Amino acid sequence: MSARVSVAPQPVSGLAIALLSGFTFGLAGPFAASLLATGWSAPAVALGRLAGTALLLVVPLLVVLGRGWRPRAGHLWAIAVYGMIPLAGAQVCYFGAVERLSVGVALLIEYTAPVLLLGWTWARSGARPRPLTILGAALAIAGLVLVLDVGRGAVVDLVGVAWGLAAAVCLAAYFQLSAASGRGTDGPPALVLIAGGTLVGSAVVAAVGLLGLLPLRAATAPIDLGGWTAPWWVGVALVAAVSTAFAYLSGIAAVGRLGSRLASFVGLSEVLFAVLAAWWLVAQRPTGTQVAGGALVVVAIALIRWAEPEPVSLSA
């Protein structure tokens, strides 16, 4: 006797959630910039982001445990890997790249993650991506080149490129590892994954700082956000609550509805939202070139959505 188990994506709700996740992720840059401007180091912002998120999710995590959820075989390992790679790894590698490359080049290299996913899927399954998917991937990268304006003062360093590629691998791992939790399969629930992962990630970043591999430097001076002066802890709270806890939870939900490959491309909207948020909060006005790049990214997402296979059902 066989049961029909639907694994069809939910494109409408998934796209809305993915865009909301991209928007909240995009706010992280301006929030972090407000702290960096007062003397914080990038790893210290990352530690505040992860540790703050872990603190925010303690009570919800206790509620989940109180309702009887218990980890099964492999859950603790999944949480540890998620904390080390998509959370701590992506940030540490990205900051390592930023030390040697311009921010635009470093971010562009990291956002080759969707192309890495396409290549991984192709190599693993032997199924060649559809022509429109390949075209969409090319347009997405071209659009990012324009959005990030990498031609302005870009400095290329091979060690920095290696850090950037490592960050791209970590970002690709985020989409892959989020898929199991987002679809409610054998992985731990999203809340448990994020809460446990941020605890692990905080420990990793703290260790990197204590070992002197990257500087941990914080300040207590007030921050400025769009002309609003606020205490330093407001910046930490915003980047933790909005751009980490909510962003990751909604991102996992989006991956479960769209699939890791499509969600990774919709996730490129984070860069567009980051540009708009920087204009709004820290007065960094986008150029005409960036607007044109944004249009290319939107076209790329539409092409990939059109090229994706129709929903299917599997027998179990």
**Largest β-sheet summary:** 2 strands, antiparallel
Distance between the termini: 9 Å
Q: What's the helical proportion of residues?
A: over 70%
- Unreliable runs, pLDDT <50, ≥5 residues? 1-8, 310-316
Average pLDDT confidence is: 78
Count the E strands: 4
Structural class label: mainly alpha
Number of helices: 14
Report the principal-axis shape. Answer: globular
Encode the helix/strand succession as letters.
EHHHHHHHHHHEEHHHHE
Rg from Cα? 19 Å
Total count of domains: 1
Transmembrane segments: 12-32, 44-64, 76-97, 103-120, 132-148, 154-177, 189-212, 232-255, 262-282, 288-307
Keywords: Cell membrane, Membrane, Transmembrane, Transmembrane helix
Subcellular location: Cell membrane
Pfam family, one: EamA
Task: Give a written overview of the molecule.
Residues 13-148, 159-305 form the EamA domain. Its main location: membrane. Keywords: Cell membrane, Membrane, Transmembrane, Transmembrane helix. It comes from Actinomycetospora corticicola. The chain is mainly α. It has one domain (22-217, 233-310). The protein has 14 helices and four strands. The protein has helices at 11-26, 28-36, 42-56, 58-66, 75-98, 103-110, 113-125, 131-148, 158-182, 190-210, 232-258, 260-266, 269-282, 288-307; strands at 4-6, 223-225, 228-230, 313-315. The strands form two sheets. The chain has a two-stranded antiparallel sheet with strand order 1-4. Strands 2-3 form a two-stranded antiparallel ribbon. A hairpin with a 2-residue loop joins β2 (223-225) and β3. α2 runs antiparallel to α11 (232-258), α3 packs antiparallel against α10 and α11 crosses α12. It is globular, with a radius of gyration of 19 Å. The N and C termini lie close together (9 Å). Mean pLDDT is 78; it is low at 1-8 and 310-316.
